[in-house]
Structure formats: C-alpha cells, structure tokens
Amino acid sequence: MSAPPLDLTAAAGDLRLRRIKDRAATAAIAAAFAVAVAPLVSLLYEVTSRGLARFDAAFFTETARGVVGEGGGAAHAIVGTLVITGVATLISVPIGILAAIYLTEYGNGRLRRALTFFVDVMTGIPSIVAGLFAFAVFALIFGPGIRLGVMGAVALSVLMIPIVVRASEEVLKVVPQSLREASYALGVPKWRTITKVVLPTALAGLVTGVMLAVARIIGETAPLLVTTGVIDSMNANPFEGRMQNLAVYAFNEYRNPGVMKEAAFDRAWAAALALLLIVMLLSLIARVIYRRHGTELR
Amino acid sequence: MRSGRGRDRSPVAGRRSPGRVTTSSSVERAGALAVRRRAGGAGDVVFRRLSTGAALTILIVLAGVAVFLAAEALPAITADPAELPEGKSLVEYIAPLAFGTVLAALIAVVVAVPLAAAVALFISHVAPRRLALTLGYVVDLLAAIPSIVYGLWGIFVLGPASVGATEWLAENLGFIPFFEGPASATGRTMLVAGLVLAVMILPIVSAVAREVFAQTPRRLQEGALALGATRWEMIRMVVLPFGRSALISGAMLGLGRALGETMAVTIILSVSGVITLNLISSANPSTIAANIALDFPESSGLAINALIASGLVLFAITLVVNMAARAVIARRANGEGS
Prior knowledge:
The complex is a heterodimer.
Chain A lengths: L7 H6 L1 H37 L5 H5 L13 H32 L2 H15 L3 H16 L6 H25 L3 H9 L4 H28 L4 H4 L20 H10 L5 H33 L5
Chain B lengths: L16 H5 L5 H52 L11 H37 L2 H16 L2 H26 L17 H25 L3 H9 L4 H30 L2 H6 L19 H8 L6 H36 L1
Helix pairs in contact in B: 2-11, 3-4, 3-6, 3-8, 3-11, 4-6, 5-6, 6-8, 7-8, 8-11, 10-11
C-alpha cells in the first residue's frame, strides 16, 4: 500500500469524483461500524428480554439441588463464583502488582525484557489451556479425579496475572518521575518511596486495573469446567469438593436441560443476564473510580 | 504503548540518595540519616527480592504450563493407538480438531479484520470527538462480555437467524466448496461459529488498530489535507500505511484469541469429526478447545491424557501466533524510537 505522490493538477480535474469517493468511503466506514455494533445491540436485547423470565428472588436464594423441572436457582453458583474469583484475585493481585513494580522500578536487562515479552505472550494463553494446566498440577499430586474450587482459582490466576501486570505497569509508568526524585531528595529509601509515594499516587489506576481484570475472568467457563466440575448443591469451601459457578451453571443448564427444557433454558439466560450485569457493573465502577480519582495521573 | 522504554530510569539510586543530598554537617542529623539508610537498605533488599520473586514466579508459571501439560500428555503420546479413544493414533485424533480450530479462527479473522479496521477508523478519524470517546467504551465493553453469553446468543439467536441465508447460499452459490450444503436446519454450523468468534475478537483487533491510527503524526495528516487531499485520501495515503503493521499484529492477536476460544464453539457447533471445507452443513469438524470442554468432564484414564495432549498442541499453536504478533509490535515500536 505504498502511497502514490499527490498529483495536484490531475487531482483538481476530477475534484467532483474525489469528493464522491470521499463521501462513499465515509459512508462505508460508518456502515461497517453499524454492522459491527449490531451484534452487541442484539445480544444485549436478547439477554435482557430472555433473562428476565427467571430473574427472580428464587434464582438468587435457592440452589439447583433436586430440581428436575421448573424452579430452582443459582445461589450455589453465585457463591461459587464469588469464592473462586475471590481466591483468584487474592493470588493474582500481589503477584501482578509486585511484578509491575519490578518492571517499572527495579527491572533492567534481560529479566525485564523477558518478563515484558512473556507477560504479553501469557495474555494469549487460551483459557481452556489454563484450566488444563491447573488440572495437570493437581492431578499429579492428588490423582486424576480431583475437582476443587481452588483448582479453578489457580486456573483463573494464570489468566488474570498478565492482565493485572499489564494494567498496573501502564499506571505506574505515568507516575511522574519528579515525585520519585523529590522523595529521594528528602532521603526516603526507595522501597518507602514506592510504598508511600508511587503506589498511593497510582492507587486509583491500580484499583481500576484490578477491577477490569476481575471483570475479564469472572465470566470464564472453560477452565472451570475442567477444574471445579459441576455440582447442584451449595459448596463454599474452595478446598473441599466440587464447586459451581455462574458461567458453568449457564452452560450446564443449556447442555443438560432435563425434562423441562424451557425452564432450564430460562435459568441459563437468567445466569447469563446476571453475569452480564456483574461484568458491566464492574467495568462501570472501574471507569468512575478512574475518572474521579485518577485524573492527577494524566 | 511502549513509550516508557526510552525514558530514563531513576537517576538517583534510592539507597544512596540521602548521603548525596545532605549538606548539613550536624552529627545528629547524619546519625539519623545513617540509621534511616540502614533501615532503608534492609527494606530495599526485601522489597527488591519480593518484586523480583513475583517476576520470576510469572516466568516459572508460564514454563510450568508447558511442563505440566507435557507431563500429563506423555502417557497418551507413548500409548498404543488401540488404547486411545476411538482407537486412532494421537495424530489421527488431533488432526481433524486442529483443522477445525484453524478453520473457525480463519473465518473469524477474515470477517473481523476489515470490520475492525473500519471501526477503528470510524472512532479515530470519522466520528466527532465526543461521540468517539463513548463509542470507544462501547466497543471495549464488547470485549468484556463472557464467552458463555456469546455462545447462548449464537445458538439461540444468530444460528436460527442464519438458516434462511445459508439455504440461499447452498442453492445459489453451492458450486463454491464453502457453501456446498445441504444447509443445516438448526444453524449449528461452522459459519455461525466463525461469525460469533469474529464478533468476539473484533474489539481486540480494533483496539490495537485504533491506538495506532490515533498516533498517526499530525503533521503528516495535516500535510496531506493542506495539499488538497480529501479525508478519505488522507486516510488511505497516510493513516492506513502508518497503521498497517498494527493492523497485522492486531489480526494475529485476534487469531490467537479465536484459536483458543472455547465456549462459543462448544455450544454452537454440531460436530461429527469430519474434515470438510463445507461451512454450512450440519456435519462439522470440532475444534481442539471445544472438544476438550465437551469430552473432558466425561473422560477418564488415557482419554484425559489424549485431551491434554490436544491442549498442548493448541498451546503450541497459540504461542507461535502470539509470539509472532508480539514480534511485529516490538519491531514497530523499535522502528518508531529511532
């Protein structure tokens, strides 16, 4: 696509044609944009309208234990989602932020370059592969039948850590160098400078990054399908037995609808709607926090 | 954004800075500083080790993914083909899956990349500024929607909606191998799976493209406009050549994502283990990821090892694609700096 030189004398001749081309190209770009956004509109509409059918109190308070037809809920899946995501966050955030601190404050030479590169590569790991990794680790220790909530959390951490590192690094990078130097000039050691000056300055951005990372992993299905398994009753202990989660719940209701298909599909859609709302809420809150408290960074 | 690379790191090493700055000769002050320096020294060592440890942990985990998958795949690799699922050799078992994986991902990339380029251009150069910002958020939001939701949308909405179109394709364009037909009556086809994947990777591709399109040097754009170019000519001659490598690397990142995407394909595709280019029939090759999600919960013994072996193949494919994409981006970032 090498650009031909602008030939102004010839260009002036067919100015009208060029104007028309310009309009046509603009219209085509706008049309393509509309085509690209149409699925989003359709998806939001369908999930909302179909999900509302079972978006009731029972959905949030009852489990699926013993439910064969209508009724039942996803309380166990909601608790499972919170526990698994919480444990994954507890693992990922310290490692992710410390690694970002390494990248921006300490790192140099080959380890820094390698980390930057491999964190990027890690963001591309298929989620199912992360699940298989967690399964392989635990299966080698406990045998192949093992299914635990914490296995799912490990799998999600593999997906979450690179996102946290990336986001935190971007935020730490824009903390003005002058702030660090002012702190050093006052005789403050480097680690105190980081914990007392750099991190507080970047706090809003760090929180935003973590929330967006949580939003990205909270709807994961595939890695949990192979690590936490499927279960119909409540289990809030990540170190004991199978654990349900909203995304897997939605998938299972769709895959194994049982005798009353429509009721199961309604539950699947309600779970999808709940997930969508959680994800959007997280993204929205993250943006608000960043807008309100993160402005000094820009 | 890799602009931070060239920026100078802290010119003053934290541990030594108190000594450099002190001009006071007061003994008390110097003593206090010495104490603080020692405390800072110990704290610095701990903190440096902690952060370096976190960095190493990440590299170890990544290596661990490869090592543990290989360890669990080994029994299937060394096993007698007769003991494996379906009695086929591992290569025969994985080949149709790998074919399906690549086919679905290619459909997604072919559909998504032109659209993503248009979306990026629309936001960076066509839409009014204020609107563009909002639109950017909306497109980013697409990336956050869980894949299970896309899957349900694909099977219940897009699939049924596609039946009429695929029947028309089979009737009128049936001579093209892709549309050979007979068209599936449920819409659970490779085409629909590929289209849903396209919707899913579009935000990633367009985010990469948008960032670079917006970085096109102003002087070049204004220069083109000053020479009398229309906006489209300016885009074609300045913005697109400038952003081409970003679009390529974005496409490869999208390809990597599409290759590994699991749930949407698992839900949508009706699979039968064939190798075919026919995109609209009800007999489709499965993908590696979808096959794992479908079979894993009900498998045991060597079947699990075979599934993990297929996962290892998927990992290798996506790793190569992603590393290539990152290499393109890195080369571009270096070229810019010079």
